[in-house]
Amino acid sequence: MSNTITVDLGERSYPIIIGSGLLSGGFDLSEYVRGGDCLVVSNDTVAPLYLDKLLPNLEGRSVDSIALTDGEAYKSLDTMQLVLDKLVAMRANRDTTIVALGGGVVGDIAGFAAACYMRGVNFVQVPTTLLAQVDSSVGGKTGVNHPQGKNLIGAFHQPQAVLIDTDTLDTLPDRELSAGLAEVVKYGAICDAGFFAWLEDNIAELRARNPVALAHAIRRSCECKAEVVAEDEREAGRRAILNFGHTFGHAIEHCQGYGEWLHGEAVAAGMVMAAQLSNLPDVDVERLRALIAAAGLPIEPPAISSEDWLAAMGMDKKVQGKQLRFVLLHDIGDSFVSAEYDAARLDELLGAAA
Predict the structure, then answer these.
(1) Residue 15 to residues 109, 125, 211, 283: CA-CA distances in angstroms?
(2) Where does a domain end: 121, 148, 171?
(3) pLDDT tens per residue, range 11-69
(4) Which of 60, 193, 240, 259 has the smallest count of CB within 10 Å of its CB?
(5) Catalytic residue among 53, 186, 263, 287
(6) Which of 53, 75, 141, 287 is the catalytic position?
(7) In which element (H, E) is residue 329 found?
(8) Is 183 labeled as catalytic in the residue annotation?
(9) Catalytic annotation on 225?
């Protein structure tokens, strides 16, 4: 049984199919696979678990595969080159479809390769981590990291479909599950106070992998993201709210070395800092801190010098005219992007984390 959400982008619209048992032929992807050839891009952790289970969903197609080295540290141009080399070796044409099977790193690399190869081929997202299911697989952002910043090289390239089999979370390590919950909490914080309250009541069920709770959290998160993306596909305005906590979080990842802190862990600490920079009542800042802690996530950043914080945040993609902009909260569930913030408070926050 599955539920479908549509990302409404006119001729580039696509479905997000969410359910249990969708792999092993539980959902026919042929409608979304252009041509007869597919390249499945996965990694050396996920491929042994789910590649064979995916193949029945691609019945009738000629399928090749590549397994990349797992980890954020390998989200680079060199790794993407391996995917491009594989496409050339298999003599892939413009009607080839790339299928991303894995977490956010796999999806971002595969999607960027799809955007670049022969100036664009189709791709399908099959995310296997909670973070990828609720965030990175939806919205068409693809790319790789640069030594000087997170996701600095990339392209907008929408998938043909996103297939979310919630059963893949059964093999997800607890730390990775908690990292995904950071992005789930984000949606409640930025645009849905009712969902935030539901998360406060159900966070223990989510960490215990209650399938009903997880299915609801994934669906509501995807609904929130689909709505924002449909309004602002290329982040010219409102879509930037999806980066709540990310200005600080990306700086943490960069300064600590990609992979030391998981993306969700860095965003979690970053959300607390962004809430502290917002003009929120203390009680609401504490609600966010308590929910993040209950999700098994850090609520304090690592020790980073103020100079390193500012250098890393200076490469944030929301910077305009060399002016930092932050996603801040009016209230829980009500966010905005602004270059108007308390500079003294920012200095205080960065100094406390030094």
Answers:
(1) 21, 11, 21, 38
(2) 171
(3) 999 999 999 999 999 999 999 998 899 999 999 999 999 999 999 999 999 999 999 99
(4) 60
(5) 263
(6) 141
(7) strand 326-331
(8) yes
(9) yes
